[in-house]
Amino acid sequence: MRSGPGRPAPWMRVAVAMLAVGWGANQFSSLLLVYRSASHLPDTFVSLAFATYALGLIPALLAGAALADRVDRRLPLRLAVVLAGVGTLLLAAGSESSWLLLAGRFVSGVASGAALAPGSAWIAELSHQDGPGAGARRSTIALSIGFGFGPLVTGLIAQWAPLPELTPYSVHVVLTVIALLAVWNVPDEPGVTRTRASSRRAEIRATLLSPAFLRTTPATAPWVFGTASTAFAIAPSILTIPGYGVMVSGTAAGLTLGAGVAIQPLAKHMERQRPGRARRTGLVLTAVGLLIAAAAFEVHIVWLIAPIAITLGGAYGLLLVSGLRRVEDLAHPDDRAAVNAFFYTLTYVGFAAPLVFSELTAHQLGPSALMIGGAVIAAATATLRQRPAEPDPRA
Hints:
mainly alpha, 18 helices, about 75% helix
């Protein structure tokens, strides 16, 4: 679909909505130290608030995908942007009542779950005239900018502005209003005829159980956010500057997701040359980044957090683009939101990495040893060969 003179392309307007949702999802990560110190909340409660996000996200992923395939892409994404704003307001109110932090994180998770699969599928449909892989790359860029700039800007504001538990959230409130204005009147892609999702369950199940999907995707997808959360949640907890922990955390997040955005053209080029190359390269970068982290943790050189974030951020970008491109290749257009939802569910397993790291280090396992172990697993996953996608006679 073409845009009118002076108007942004429809896919750009959808991308702004996904950026806003991504911003709201990740802004909390750079404020963990603020809540632990300024609010004097126990680590267990702050960790619970961080994890509550997933409780809202996973069921919303499945419900949003079903709604998008059954009705259209617009309703779940509009709802997601509204909920992202509501979640931010609840988090801001959490400075007065800590239980509102849990509610805010839960609603933010619901917003992300409702947006990810429909938004990715919608951008893919609006980008079909620009060639294979354009939609996957654009979705990843929009999400990565939101995921990265959210904690970066929030962390910098919280480090130096007054009321660090309240002021940083004001940026996302403004962004939410802009996103609503951008996406509200974007029409669904004309010419796309969808069947009822309930009548395509067999086709969706066949795609998810196909050897082409199962051989690499379930093993690779958790590394998408596993790499990102290692870079902006684990590394800053070990490599930090006293008095500037919030800034370090926010900067690490910004570098991680910034690298994920910057590598998108290369990811598209790799997948166009040889499907699966971006996946393998991303896993190799994951292993390299984890080995750098192991060395940095051992000698405690704080500035090494920059190459850790850039390397693991590049891995994140490659793995997310390759995963979304794989869904485009394997799933019928009517099924993409549902298959995207399952893929994103697998990727969010990676957000458990900080919790697993914390539990294992509490049992006397060294941080460096855990990074080396992760590098070995990533390298082993890279050796899995990706089966070619078979032509879909239904397309």
